[in-house]
Amino acid sequence: MLKCNIGYLMVDHKIKTITELVNLTGLSRDTLTKIRDHSKLETVKLDTYLKLCDFFKCNLSDLIEYIPKEDSE
Question: What is the pLDDT of residue 12?
Fold first, then answer.
């Protein structure tokens, strides 16, 4: 499972809304909403994540976290 920490980064950079982030990054509202809502994060292009990393001046691992599924055994 992928988890995105965009909400924390937005708070750290005093960005209050997705609209503000859209205006600052030039990324689409739909894409940023998908990322914020953790909706199918694996379908977002790597280039989008890299643009966010450049904007927030962070590493990819600061933005996206991989959480392995628990083994059912």
Answer: 96
Closest CA to 47 of 39, 35, 65: 35
Average pLDDT by stretches of 10, the chain with 73 residues? 92 96 96 91 94 97 90 48
Per-residue burial over 18-42, b if 16 or more Cβ lie within 10 Å, else e, is beebbeebebeeebbebbeeeeebe
Give the C-alpha separation, 25 to 57, whole Å: 12
Could you give the CA distance from residue 71 to residue 32 in angstroms, rounded to a whole number? 31
User: For residue 73, what pLDDT is reported?
Assistant: 45
Torsion over CA: 42, 45, 48, 50 (sign)? positive
Give me the amino acid identity at 73. E
